[in-house]
Specification:
- The complex is a heterotrimer.
- Chain A is an alpha+beta fold.
- Chain A has eight helices and 19 strands.
- The longest helix of chain A has 18 residues.
- Chain B has a single domain, classed as MetI-like fold.
- In chain B, a hairpin with a 5-residue loop joins strand 1 and strand 2.
- In chain B, helix 3 crosses helix 7, helix 9 packs across helix 10 and helix 13 packs antiparallel against helix 14.
- The longest helix of chain B is centred in the N-terminal third of the chain and has 35 residues.
- The two termini of chain B are 29 Å apart.
- By secondary structure, chain C is mostly helical.
- Chain C has one domain: Orthogonal Bundle (MetI-like fold), CATH 1.10.3720.
- Chain C starts with 5 loop residues before the first helix and ends with a helix.
- Chains in contact: A-B, A-C, B-C.
- Chains A and C meet through strand 6 and helix 2 of A and helix 8 and helix 9 of C.
């Protein structure tokens, strides 16, 4: 189930005029749509992420906001002003490119000063602002170095400084952390979030890493094949996915086929499980019951829970957690994620072949058509 | 961003605005206009002058006379043309035979010295062509080191000459243009996946068979490029035949040169130039058809 | 470009030192340098002979420097090369930029036209150029040589620059525009500096090519002055004086120096050796 977003679904929290409004934005390349009828509002000061797999249109959308790609249809409004026809140098927007795109023939300081020079800012002011910005991204003292002599993480900060020093209304970031190794990436995620809070600028962040999006964003737009599938806070998107795509893209999700009947889902493999009244779902229709592994319990069930029996097929120990693969019926397997708080000893954990009962709260599962 | 093409449909994802391409078109214009103007105008002139005549003083006059075109059928010219083709093709073949081992050795066994060795081949080539040919003619002369060495090993006697013969001319052509064969071959060998050779040794055993059945086909395109790059200038060359050959080794280039300078028959010279260009054009078409067939086969 | 490191290649000892190929290579290098060695050697010959070397002397060099005609030709060749270099680089760089960025039909057509001088035998371009000048009633002079050489050299510059431009990171230009530069400013401040090593290398290359060029100059030169190559040609044809050896040696030294410079320029800028230029051909 996909939803082409009406402005209300992607609307900014009430009050402030949106920093960015995309109105029915489309980009068509010779017959196929990279971005189709995209409408979003992004609030000022928001850390907003465009999340999705390769080819979903997130980067194309970003490039249209930045002015590097001309939309086939639709408008782009920055703080109420229509900038759709403006070239990049005339928009009050700056970009951090995935390749960083640093000017190798200029020093770090000259890189950062580039935008200010174009604007005609005075030399003294340039020196001051560049100095402050380099300190803020922890590159103080490296101003005279050439980008070619810096590490990947340092180059990333130069790109960031170069964009931020111009005090744009909006900062666009195109998968800026993709080239960094895991530890550095985690650190940069925290730093970026801090910087964003300090500076107060709206960030539009493109990523394919849902962990990253969940950690950093105020709101996330999950995109697929040129459209926004769902837009909301990280919690909204993770806990209450509105489509099969979002449910499976954000983390892992078990999908069990069945039929919806009056507050219950009758699984194809037999048992009928309570799911509560799902108003939008037609009685008798084929559905998938979606439940996240961490929401499934293996003991101490509460009254009202949906319970079903199965056989443990695999036990996968991963330090703080254990994952059990439980077969409900031939071909129907669910994974259950449990923290190893109680069951720290081998004997306490279930092992292959054991019959076990699993359960979950009906409100934690989704019924997807 | 070429490395991030998600799908074929998004290939041109830069989506430049119309105003953007204007700058590039303006930049391209002067160079293009200059070259097009120059080339087209001059070629038209050559073609039209071929239809011209000369006045009693020897000055070229434009006209509408097919005498020169008809003269092309003259057996004398045909001989020269065929000879030029022959020399050029033989020179090509010799270049191929010599360049392969050289490029092979440098590419696969050059190690750290690869770049140095290639430079050592390329740099002399950029020295003055005339000076090199002149030196070559001295080296190949009757008293020169090459004949001395050949006589010492018994491959030649006191009467053998290299200059003033077809061998001399071909030697001149090879010396002048072999670099054009070495560079593409070297590039192709460099790019070749060495595991192909290892697989070949596994299958064919000997180094020679591996070369013929694995290396040669894999670098076929480089060889073809080199052949073209040698053949074209060789066809038009006149210095080799002049310095290294005798009156029986005249090439079409010499004829053309003669008509424009000593002989003072520009229309005839133009006709000869057109003739040579026609032959080259046909040759190129054949080559292009061949490569397109090869590419189609490779794509299957 | 090869992704293999030099070490791995060394370990692939599939053919143990192929003897035949090595011999051919050795003989090749010998024969390649023999004519050059002869010319250089005999430029220092004390005697007027071309076969017997007797006594070391600089007389032929002195003869060259005292020969006004030859010196005048040298000056002309230098002037022609300089102008051709400047003209072809300016036009060629612009053309290369346009060709790579302009995806229109005009662009692909222009791309093909630009290759024509590279594949036509020089005698054809020589004849064509000469007829063009005569047809427009322009007397042959150093000017006509310059014009002809520029035309021929544009192709070299464009070929070299094209691959380099295509390899540039397009995001860098976009970043410049993102930061407020117009397209023209981005070109001037960011793209051209990035291309500088290739531009300089191609400039030096063109200078050397034009300086040594013979056929085209032969057809498009006036009577006086004539480029050095043409004078050498006349001297070779009509009886050799050993001064030619001296001139030849000097030209050789000059060309070698220039080409070495052209190949080394990218290295001076912190990149790998300039033979990348050639592997593109």
């Amino acid at each position: 189930m996909t939803s082409s977003d009406a402005p209300s679904a992607g609307a900014a929290p009430a009050g402030a005029p949106p920093a960015i409004r995309l109105d029915r934005l489309s980009k068509n390349y010779g017959g196929s749509y990279a971005v189709h009828d995209l409408s979003l509002d992004i609030a000022p000061g928001e850390f907003f992420s465009l999340l999705g797999p390769s080819g979903c249109g997130k980067t194309t959308s970003l490039r249209m906001i930045g002015g590097f790609t001309e939309p086939t249809a639709g408008t782009i409004l920055l703080s109420g002003e229509d900038v759709t026809a403006l070239p990049p140098d005339k928009r009050n927007v700056n970009t951090v490119f995935q390749s960083y795109a640093l000017f190798d023939h200029l020093s770090v300081a000259d890189n950062v000063a580039f935008g200010l020079k174009r604007k005609g800012v005075g030399r003294a002011e340039i020196r001051e602002r560049v100095g402050v910005m380099l300190e803020r991204v922890q590159l103080g003292g490296l101003g005279d170095r050439k980008p070619g002599t810096l590490s990947g993480g340092q180059r990333q900060r130069v790109a960031l400084a170069r964009a931020l020093v111009n005090r744009p209304q909006v900062l666009l970031l195109d998968e800026p952390l993709a080239a960094l190794d895991l530890k550095l990436r985690r650190r940069m995620q925290v730093e970026l979030k801090q910087i964003q809070r300090e500076v107060g600028i709206t960030f539009v962040f493109v990523t394919h890493d849902q962990d990253e999006a969940l950690t950093m964003s105020d709101r996330v737009a999950v995109m697929n094949e040129g459209r926004v599938e769902q837009c909301g806070t990280p919690e909204d998107v993770y806990e209450h996915p509105t489509s099969r795509f979002v449910a499976s893209f954000m983390g892992t999700s078990n999908l069990v086929p069945g039929t919806y009947r009056d507050g219950q889902v009758v699984l194809d493999c037999g048992p009928a499980l309570p799911v509560g009244d799902r108003g939008g779902v037609a009685d008798g229709s084929s559905v998938s019951l979606s439940i996240r592994p961490e929401k499934i319990w293996l003991s101490d069930f509460e009254p009202g829970m949906a319970l079903v029996r199965g056989v443990v097929r695999e036990t996968v120990y991963s330090g703080p957690t254990t994952t059990y693969l439980i077969e409900l019926a031939p071909g129907v397997t669910v994974s259950v994620l449990e923290q190893n708080t109680d069951r720290s000893r081998m004997e306490d954990r279930w092992s292959g072949g054991e019959s076990v009962e699993i359960g979950w709260r009906p409100e934690h599962c989704l019924v997807l058509e | 961003m070429a490395q991030r093409t998600p799908s074929g449909a998004l290939r041109d994802r830069r989506g430049r605005s119309a105003s953007g391409t204007r700058l590039w078109t303006w930049l391209m214009l002067p160079g293009t206009l200059w070259m097009t103007g120059f080339l087209i105008a001059s070629l038209i002139l050559v073609a039209t002058l071929a239809l011209g005549t000369t006045d009693p003083l020897g000055n070229p006059r434009f006209g509408f006379n097919f005498a020169n075109i008809a003269a092309m059928a003259d057996p004398a010219y045909r001989i020269v043309l065929l000879r030029s083709l022959g020399f050029a093709l033989i020179a090509c073949a010799v270049c191929l035979v010599v360049a392969y081992p050289v490029a092979y050795t440098i590419a696969l066994h050059g190690g750290r010295f690869k770049n140095l060795l290639i430079a050592a081949i390329v740099v002399p080539f950029f020295a003055n062509y005339l000076v090199r040919m002149y030196g070559w003619s001295v080296v190949l002369s009757d008293g020169g080191p090459v004949l001395k060495a050949l006589r010492a090993v018994g491959l030649a006697d006191a009467h053998t000459k290299i200059l003033q013969s077809g061998v001399g001319v071909i030697a001149g052509l090879v010396y002048g243009f072999i670099v054009f064969m070495i560079i593409p071959l070297y590039a192709a060998l460099e790019r070749m996946d060495l595991s192909l050779i290892e697989a070949g040794r596994d299958l064919y055993g000997g180094p020679l068979r591996t070369f013929f059945f694995v290396t040669l086909p894999a670098t076929r395109q480089g060889a073809a490029a080199g052949a073209v790059l040698v053949f074209l200038p060789a066809m038009g060359d006149f210095v080799s035949a002049q310095l290294m050959g005798g009156p029986n080794q005249i090439m079409i280039g010499n004829l053309i040169q003669d008509k424009f300078f000593q002989g003072q028959n520009w229309p005839l010279g133009s006709a000869l130039t057109m003739l040579m260009m026609a032959v080259l054009f046909i040759g190129m078409l054949g080559y292009l058809r061949r490569t397109r067939k090869d590419e189609a086969e490779a794509a299957r | 470009m090869t992704l293999r490191t030099p070490h791995r290649r060394h370990r692939r000892g599939t053919d143990r030192r192929p003897r035949v190929a090595l011999t051919v290579t050795a003989v090749f290098f010998l024969l390649l340098y023999l004519p050059i060695a002869v010319v250089v050697l005999f430029s220092f010959n004390g005697q007027k002979s071309l076969t017997v070397f007797k006594g070391f002397s600089l007389r032929w060099y002195s003869a060259f420097f005292h020969d006004n005609v030859l010196i005048e030709s040298l000056g002309m060749s230098l002037r022609v090369s300089l102008v051709a270099m400047a003209g072809s680089v300016v036009l060629g760089v612009a053309l290369a930029l346009g060709l790579v960025r302009c995806r229109t039909r005009l662009g692909s057509l222009a791309g093909l036209i630009m290759l024509v001088p590279l594949i036509t035998p020089e005698i054809v371009t020589g004849v064509a150029a000469m007829l063009l000048f005569k047809g427009m009633d322009i007397t042959l002079s150093s000017g006509t040589v310059m014009l002809a050489e520029i035309t021929f050299s544009i192709s070299y510059v464009t070929v070299i620059l094209r691959s380099r431009i295509a390899a540039l990171n397009p995001e860098v230009e976009e970043a410049a525009m993102d930061l407020g530069a117009t397209r023209w400013q981005a070109l001037r401040l960011v793209t051209l500096p990035a291309l500088l090593p290739s531009i300089l290398a191609s400039a030096v290359l063109v200078f050397a090519l034009v300086f040594d060029d013979f056929v085209l100059a032969y057809f498009t030169t006036g009577v006086d002055p004539q480029p050095l190559s043409v004078r050498i040609y006349s001297a070779i044809r009509f009886g050799v004086q050993p001064t030619i050896n001296a001139v030849g040696t000097l030209m050789l030294a000059g060309s070698v120096g220039l080409i070495g410079l052209a190949l080394a320029i990218p290295r001076l800028f912190g990149r790998r050796g300039g033979l990348d230029l050639l592997s593109g051909k």
